[in-house]
Amino acid sequence: MTTDIRYRVVIRCPKCGEKYILRGRMKENGEYETGFKRCVCGNETDLKVEATPE
Ligand SMILES: [Zn+2]
User: How far is the CA of 38 from the centre of ligand 1 (A)?
Assistant: First the structure.
């Protein structure tokens, strides 16, 4: 079974206020595959992620 639903993923960094809008899909572990690595401020763990199906 493949879940090929594309999501619009909004990642917000509470440390510097930066916001990223990406596209991705959900992985089997429930995380979103967007290619996002880290915020420009270096924060890569304390991020708010919201996703809506496209
Ligand atoms: Zn940041």
Answer: 8
